[in-house]
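Input record (one chain):
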Amino acid sequence: MTAGDLHLQTLTQLARGLEQGDFTSVELVQALLERIEAHNSELNALLTVTADHALEEAKRSDAQRNKGENKVPGIGVLNGLPLVHKDIFCTRGVLTTCGSRMLEDFVSPYDATVVERLAGAGAIMLGKSNMDEFAMGSSNETSYFGPVRNPWDLERSPGGSSGGSSASVAARLTPAATGTDTGGSIRQPAALTGTTGLKPTYGRVSRYGMIAFASSLDQAGVITRSAEDAALLLGVMAGFDQRDSTSIDHPVPDYVAGLGESLAGLRVGVVRQHFDAGLDELLVKGCLDIG
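The corresponding structure, as predicted from the sequence alone:
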């Protein structure tokens, strides 16, 4: 595996590569930062790039691994792995704009619980992703900082409001990104960019430090390249948080282990009346054939 190929790997593949010593976290982060430098200007997927911080964290992770400290209980399962946060999550010392002119200079004094837990598991933040202003939109065209482009076709939308997250994963600028979903803002952009999006059950993931669009519906989730990656991240993000009154105090299962369960007897329902004018004919045919 060469540095030029690292962006092609999923999060779980990268985790194995780091563990086996195929490459270092610094090499991985540097490769992705170079890719961001090369492609973000045309995609407008990331609003803030935390290059210096990411490289420092990567060096720390490599030092832990070289000393064998990554085997010590408490060192996270995401140690040395990079990701991007939607710019709706508060990040201590880093801009949190929500895609709005109103917050274009706002630097949060604290981390959202999602940010805190992922960092605690060793994840490295590469930057903050563009979004519809205050998550109000479904095309990522309402951001004060300009629209996000779909990496598969720059003339098309990547969906929204988590369009920056979906575009950055689809363009291989990052193996994973956080997002938020009120009425489809993770699932819809994931569908439009060919990525994997997951909106967890309400209350499963803390909303503390997530600037709300609609508190009674908002939920933090992930956009990745595989179900395994989504399960890995959800296992870290999920769990009770006393700072969020809607957080569910319930044990977090092993989502990755659950991926091996049989699908025998599973039924998939498709609501046919939602397939109306304006949808791509191939999409409609494919979904109805499944249903």
